[in-house]
Amino acid sequence: MVFDKRLLFLFYLLCTLTTARGTAWGQSRFTLSGTVKDARSGEVLIGATVRVQQQPTVGTVSNEYGFYSLTLPQGDYTFQISLMGYQTATKTVSLTASTRLDLALSESANELQEVVVRSRADNENITNPTMGVERLQMADIKQIPVLLGERDPLKVLQLLPGVKSAGEGNSGFHVRGGNSDQNLILLDEAPVYNASHLLGFFSTFNADAIKDMSIFKGGMPAQYGGRLSSVLDVKMNDGNNQTFHAGGGIGLIASRLYVEGPLAKDKSSFLITGRRTYADAFLKLSNDPDINQNTLYFYDLNAKLNYTLSAKDRLFASGYFGRDRFGLGDLFNIDWGNATGTLRWNHLFNEKLFSNTSLIYSQYDYQVGVQNGSNDFSLKSSIRDYNLKQEFSYYPSPAHALRFGANVIHHTITPRNRTATSENSSVNDTNEKSRYSLESAVFVSDKWQISPKFSLEYGLRLTSFLVLGGSDYYTLDDRQNIVDTLSYASGEVVKHYLNPEPRLAAAYVLNDNLSIKASYTRNVQNLHLISNSGTSTPNDRWLQSSNLIRPEIADQVAVGVFHNFRDNQYEFSAETYYKALQNQIDYKNGADFQFTDALETQLLFGKGRAYGLELLLRKKTGTLTGWVGYTLSRTEKQIEGINNGSWYAARQDRTHDLSVVGIYPVSRRWTLSATFVYNTGSAVSFPTGKYRIDDGVVFNYTERNGYRMPAYHRLDLGATVKFRKRKNFESDLAFGLYNAYGRANPYAINFEQDSYDPSKTEIQRITLFKMVPSVTYNFKF
What are the residues whose beta carbons fall under 8 Å from the beta carbon of 242, sequence distance 6 or more? Predict the structure, then answer.
């Protein structure tokens, strides 16, 4: 195939360039390589900078497994190893042969509580060609006040420009105009299809289990694919391989506990974390049967084990399991959850070539039960993946860092099958067959430091998507009615989509404190979430590309200016982007999502566009720290059959988004914090009229998303007091006040017929949270 030949040619060209570049350095060149770790816990450190002190522009960064490699001419060197939050270390090496040197960094004596979201080095935001990337560390988010006091990385993520909350208290998010399903969320490389607990008020990520989170809003490297808007790459803690530790927290609504320690010191370690809410226990204390018979809770479990097989081999096994249960007596219940598992093998072929092989499992499922007179039924649906991924990192010279590999994913999507739960039920059973597909990709990329001032990161990803048989597919007429049902045997290819995804990012450093960057990225998405609500719900339906549903494609260009001042104490960035979207999906007017089995008959397809400006001013060090972020943006669609074919606002379109974060340590024990957010109300469809049919009133909707919810704004306050440390025991008490001035932000606005006067319409404004206090006791020993 022509694309395969182009990919092979690109890989050959990259190798030729790096080889030619390396030859110019001379014949006597040797490689210093190894792993960077935390001196106290033995955890590998991601993003640690290893630089030549005599030549500050020559260096490298440890990858997500802590590995680094640096090839230099023979000689004596002093290396400087740094990572924010850790003491800078220096090592003097006489490089007369290729050398393995494992490095350990100690935490800074002055704990950097004030750093909340940070780059991997003091000025890497200036020098790194990748745009639209931010990194969060769990130790840094504990001061940010959030809903109900639970430390939640996704809530902090929503305070960054370009990342928008999906709704009041919701952990779902939209990135640069994308739908919530257009974010690839990875937990130790396993996709998480629903990252929400309690209908979105908590996320699936327990901060005690997480080591590192990186989000790519644009210009994402070629090893990532499958979604249009962003990648959220979450890495779990490996566990302490030196000593045993335990800790956790007790809050008003949830408690958590973790245990970690070595199985064999310096060689292996484990981590187990658990969390559960107990709102259901409070409900049972009520004497009202309409309350005490309800169910509302979630629980989750993270576990990880790693073992050093040899100096060149390391094995990891990690998993996550979490479920939610919500029920209204015997009338309604919903049960949903995720399960993931990752088995990973790191192998060092030599000092320049690093390998990661991963076998990954991921499943999301939900069950809904309804008992309502003659409408007694249950719904079940799931999506399950088996994924094999092979990646290589190759460091031929200090100027180049290559990454290449392939992965294959087998998807199984079980449609929403419906079953009557009583003999008198008027609901008919359905038993749709599962749909299968095979998604594969090969990729290659290179991060090339052309000169001290100019750097490139470029690559290509080639995605193949095979729609497989074993289920029914349809042919539709112009009115979306089924005219033929097509049956395919198991394993038979129904449709094949092949799409190249080029990636390019460039940075030009004007001086040590100022750079300009530009990027172009094409992304392709073959799994689609269909929802008819303003925010994602657990029973939204996943569909795969088929003979009717084509892959979604996004082409994004971005340009930015990055400026640091006052010795990197302040960072300022301004990024503007434009995203052209193909094969966008929306539901047709009057669509039936509840009882339609062939969902393709309810969908329409067209194009979209998203564009905006993101501003960020961040103060990283000093007594008062925090940031101010602002986003000006538009997100629109144009689909024949909606709004007469004119452009209309997408549901997630919000013109203005403002966030302000401040953290202030009053003393060694007390730290105060505050966040303020403001955004334009989301686009929404309101009725423009009504008419009567028999004894009922039907509301008439004309323009899609032609109205706005009221503007949203909120102030949150937080305070943390540290208790005196006793030997190996540490503890603190965190106070929070969500929505401090009691703003009645609307969660939904409903239109209903007045029960006393049918000629009138009642407008109901639903508000969820007004001034919610919280207190959490955290401990560690």
Answer: 40, 41, 42, 262, 265, 266
